[in-house]
Specification:
Two copies of one chain form a homodimer. Chain A is α+β, with helices and mostly antiparallel strands. Chain A folds into two domains: 79 residues, Winged helix-like DNA-binding domain superfamily/Winged helix DNA-binding domain (Arc Repressor Mutant, subunit A), CATH 1.10.10.10; 142 residues, Chorismate lyase-like (Chorismate lyase). In chain A, the strands form three sheets. A six-stranded antiparallel β-sheet of chain A has the order 4-5-6-9-8-7. In chain A, a hairpin with a 2-residue loop joins strand 5 and strand 6. In chain A, helix 2 crosses helix 4 and helix 3 packs across helix 4. Chain A is elongated. At the A-B interface, strand 7, strand 8 and strand 10 of A face strand 7, strand 8 and strand 10 of B. Strand 10 of chain A pairs antiparallel with strand 7 of chain B. Chain A binds a DNA duplex through helix 4.
Chain lengths: 249, 249
DNA sequence: AAGTGGTCTAGACCACTCC
DNA sequence: GAGTGGTCTAGACCACTTA
């Protein structure tokens, strides 16, 4: 029903009108009320509903489009966009896609999983409380049969509905989360570490070999969703990016 | 003279007017014709000069401001901005500022410098031609007296006027370049490596200790400016960034 | 007090594309 | 053909800041 969507757009009277419109629609998108694919009311409808001129409505929508939240096409109108799958340099990256992008066979194995309260060392490593309900997973990703990345992950039960019923038999946890959870913030850290004995054995490298450690935590509206540590043997990984002084090129 | 600046803004007739205006001014900024601090003609002057409405001129200027090329203030007008000193996660970073930002004493020493054609191994490492005129430098940066980062850099003579006369006695080469050259593009790569014997000795770590290797190359309008390899002992460095699915938070 | 940018309107014409 | 967004105008009033 178009009316219900129109009625959902509420201005709060704070700041410029175009920004009120932008924030109102943004909130509907990031909260999940308007999932990807939802059609956004056309400019003239918003204009009448909100009592603003078309230029003002247009300005809000253009900005949302520039931010990537919506997609606009003449005649067919405006729809809520799918969140970008990959992101900048430290992206929410699909390892299967990365490997296949290199033209290699992809395979993975869940080496361990435990649900419930985290063990003390796990809670410590991920900086979470011992009483939080999480799943703790260790996954080895392979490219052309060779160990590629070692993934250790916790998933917060509260942030990932359906977690209990998923066994990650056909989709690795990272990709499953991309489809089954929302996130609004992510933090990444990258550092160099030597592989520990157990890690080296799994990755089939020698202990102490330099690896890139990418740590990522994501939240949805301050609800933690997941935290992951990805260990990449250094000789096999580089992260590359291109910039200009005023932005990405 | 305001007139000369106004006259410098030339539209090319390609695409929307607001974008022609945006590109015209952008080109004046990134080419260096309008250095940082230059005042940009006010909207009404551009409007008359270009025969566009104020909204159209405004749209171009707003976009340039959002891109960070200009700074706008009511009453005082619009001026060309200084290029951002630091950049995203893989920034054109001032090591002195980074160290001092951590509350530590900063010091550096130029361990070696040679000007002219690069040695074969240097040309190989940086992917440059043997006949290019460059300066090759090795610099050790210290924080509170302890080795912090090992920097190996080449600077292209053609891209850095004044290079011959600079001895880097008071300013390390990275910071000197920030003030004495323009750049329009940069490429970064990050990987994990083990410290070599010579590097380990200089950094006072053990050979093979994992280090983050940040490699950066910059160009100004396809003229190479500099290329640098920064070796950070892994235990002391992390790069951290925060994102939302639709952009930096 | 005056110059500057920030916002907004009411309307117009055009370009694209689906029906 | 008609619905949608893309662009543009001519004007207005306001907010901020400096002189």
């Amino acid at each position: 029903m178009t009316d219900s969507r129109l009625d959902a757009v509420k201005l709060d009277g704070a700041g410029p009108v175009y920004d009120q419109i932008r924030r109102a629609i943004r909130d509907l998108v990031v909260s999940g009320s308007w999932p990807p694919g939802t059609s956004v009311p056309p400019e003239h409808a918003l204009m009448e509903q909100l009592g603003a001129s078309r230029m003002t409505v247009h300005r809000a929508l253009v900005q949302l489009a520039r931010e990537g939240l919506i997609t606009r096409r003449r005649r067919s109108g405006t729809i809520v966009a799918s969140p970008p799958a990959s992101h900048a340099m430290f992206d929410i990256l699909s390892i299967p896609e990365e490997v296949r992008g290199l033209g290699q066979d992809y395979a993975y194995k869940v080496l361990s999983r435990s649900d419930g309260r985290p063990a003390p060392d796990v809670a410590e490593r991920f900086g979470i409380k011992r009483w939080e309900k999480v799943a703790h997973l260790v996954v080895l990703h392979r490219a052309d049969g060779k160990p590629h990345v070692l993934e250790e992950r916790i998933i917060h039960a509260a942030g990932a509905p359906g977690l209990e019923d998923e066994d990650f038999a056909v989709t690795p946890p990272g990709d499953w989360l991309l489809e089954h959870s929302l996130w609004s913030q992510a933090e990444h850290a990258i550092s160099a570490v030597g592989a520990g004995a157990a890690e080296a054995a799994l990755l089939e490298i020698t202990e102490g070999e330099p690896c890139l450690l990418v740590e990522r935590r994501t939240w949805n509206q301050s609800q933690p969703v997941t935290a992951v540590r990805l260990l990449h043997p250094g000789s096999r990984h580089r992260f590359v990016g291109r910039f200009g002084p005023y932005g990405r090129v």
